[in-house]
Structure formats: C-alpha cells, structure tokens
Amino acid sequence: MVKVFSLAIINVTSSGQGVALSSESELGSFSFYQKTSVGEFMAFMSKTVAERTGPGQRQSVQEGNYIAHAYNRGGDEQLVSVMITDADYPVRPAFSLLSKILDEYATAVPTSQYSNPPPFPATKEYLSKYQDPKQADNIMKVQAELDETKIILHKTIESVLERGEKLDNLVDRSNALSAQSKMFYKTAKKQNSCCVIM
C-alpha cells in the first residue's frame, strides 16, 4: 500500500532559508523509538528540498525509499509545499494536492502572519485524505490535468544540492536534527550500503 509520510508548507525567505509555516506527519508505520528521529529527518528533508526548488518549479527528489514532491508557486510570498511519500505514490495526485494546498494557504493566511503563522487544519486533513491516491484523484478530477512536463525527477537528493555539497555534511551541520537523529541517519545509511549486490 502506498503511503504519505509528511506534508509541509514552507516559506523560503529572501535569505534562502526555509521556515515551516504548517506541517503534519503520519509516522505510524515506524516503531516508537524511530518516530522522533524519522520525523526530524522528514522535516529536514522537506526544508532542504523547499530551499532548492525554484519559483514556479515542480520537482520530485528521491532519497532511499522516499520521494519528496515539491512545488514552489513563485510570487512574492515564496511559498513551497512539500509532500514526502514512498516510491510507489503516483505523481499526479501528489502535485494536485501541493498546488491546491498552496492556493488555500495563500488565500487564508496573509504574508504579514508568516512570522507567527496561525494553525492551518487543512494540512492534517489533506495528509489523511491523500493516503489513498485513488480517493485523491476523485477529489481532484474537477481540476485540469497537471502539466507533467515541468516536473523534474531527480534520482537522488544529492543531485539537488549545490556542487560540492553533500547530504552527510548537511546532516552533520544541521541544528534542526538532534544527535539521536543524526546517528539514526548514519546507521540507516551504513546498513543500506553494506547490502549492495553486484
């Protein structure tokens, strides 16, 4: 079964820093001991991808078994929505949701409130609703077909980082990740790399 793990609305400031305005996650498939670390890493990945998604751009960035779908609507407010799913989640409903939630957020919350954003319950509602992409497609069938030619699929998160920038270095330098989350990332990466079969 396909899965949506997190949904976030991020404001990319003029300095290029991403600030989460609204975010929700569904981490029920992880053990109690992993949830905090996984949640921190999902927030970190969402922020990193949002900061590297240009105005008007849609892109999907894969890291391991997860894909971060991101959409930057452009404009003065620099709002970016990011949805992290498993690799089997279909692209069209993901980007339909990202576009819809940004439109609703921009209408409901003025830019003057971005420094202290009010709660936005639609984020949690959409995270739950879009767990089933077939239901999501029925919800979105009124909207025009998404122009998928603008979507850039990157094979790894490394490809959206700046030249010479490494995910390992970003994780080490990040203040957003606890020492436990950094250790979780390194352990998971080490376990995945030891089992490559040629």
Keywords:
six-stranded mixed β-sheet, 21% strand, Synaptobrevin-like, membrane, Synaptobrevin homolog YKT6, Beta-Lactamase, alpha+beta, palmitate, 198 residues
Your description of this structure?
The structure is a single chain. It is built from 6 helices and 6 strands, in the order E-E-H-E-E-E-H-H-H-E-H-H. It has a single domain, classed as Longin domain (Beta-Lactamase), CATH 3.30.450. Helix 1 (32-51) crosses helix 6 and helix 2 (91-108) crosses helix 4 (133-140). It is α+β, with helices and mostly antiparallel strands. The chain is globular and about 45 Å long. It has helices at residues 32-51, 91-108, 122-129, 133-140, 167-173, 179-193, and strands spanning 4-12, 18-25, 58-63, 66-72, 79-86, 151-154.
Tell me the domain tally: 1
Note the gap between the termini. Answer: 28 Å
Which fold does the CATH topology refer to? Beta-Lactamase
SS summary, helix count: 6
CATH superfamily: Longin domain
| The level-1 CATH class | Alpha Beta
Strand content: 15-25%
Percentage of residues assigned to helices: 25-40%
Oligomer: single chain
What is the alpha-carbon Rg in Å? Answer: 16 Å
Shape: globular
Mean pLDDT: 81
Q: What order do the SSEs take from the amino end to the carboxyl end, as H and E?
A: EEHEEEHHHEHH
| Major beta sheet summary | 6 strands, mixed
* Biggest sheet strand line-up: 2-1-5-4-3-6
Q: Give me the CATH architecture, please.
A: 2-Layer Sandwich
SSE-based structural type: alpha+beta
Low-confidence stretches are 140-149
Number of DSSP strand runs? 6
Membrane topology: Lipid-anchor
Keywords: Cell membrane, Coiled coil, Lipoprotein, Membrane, Methylation, Palmitate, Prenylation
GO cellular component, one term: Golgi apparatus
Protein name: Synaptobrevin homolog YKT6
